[in-house]
Structure formats: C-alpha cells, structure tokens
Automatic annotation (TrEMBL):
Protein name, entry field: DUF35 domain-containing protein
InterPro entries: NA-bd_OB-fold
Keywords: Plasmid
C-alpha cells in the first residue's frame, strides 16, 4: 500500500478504502501515489501476538492532502524524518505498509 485514495472534487486524500469522500461525499475516489511524508510520532508495542517481533515499533506519518497512516517503522527513524511507504509482509503473511526513510525506499 504505497497509494492513497484522492477525491477529484475536493482533493482530500485517505489511505484506507472508502466508498465516499469524508469531506464532500463524492463517490469517485481515485488511486494516487502517496509520495513523501513526515514522521510525526513513534511508539513501541511490547506485548505482541505470536510471530510479531517485540518491541514492534510503529509510527504515525502524514502525507500531502491530510492523509495519515500508522505503520511499522524501519529501525532508526525519529519524528521529523521524511518517509515513504513500502510493502512489507507481516503477521500471518498479510502484506501491510512499512515506513522507511525517504531516500532509502525500495518500492
């Protein structure tokens, strides 16, 4: 998931599947590249399900158009860093996004 859904009417962007724009109600959301965002906050989860490493570092990042996402973090990232998303296979072979340093992206 390195794309966002963008409303063609008002420009709002979101990461998660929606049928309508949350701002204007338009129903013609289009897929766009997420681009580069800014890491806003980090945390670590110390009690995780079987198969998920501990601590599980997560970050909140914001991207253009008010799109924000919480995702697993590449080691060494701190708030204020520029980030991009790359796909990552995580718990139970489910693909989920991972935040990586913008100039390190492999996607």
């Amino acid at each position: 998931m390195n794309t966002v859904l963008e409303c063609p009417d008002c420009g709002r962007r979101t990461f998660y599947e929606k049928r309508r724009c949350l701002d204007c109600g338009a129903d013609d959301l289009r897929s766009r590249e997420a681009g580069v965002g800014t890491l806003r906050a980090v945390t670590a989860v110390h009690v995780t399900p079987d198969g998920v490493s501990e601590p599980n570092r997560l970050g909140l990042a914001s991207f253009d158009g008010d799109a924000s996402i919480i995702a697993q973090l590449e080691d060494g990232l701190e708030p204020g860093d520029r980030v991009t998303l790359e796909p990552s296979v995580s718990w139970e072979d489910v693909e989920s996004p991972r935040l990586v340093q913008a100039n390190q992206s492999r996607s």
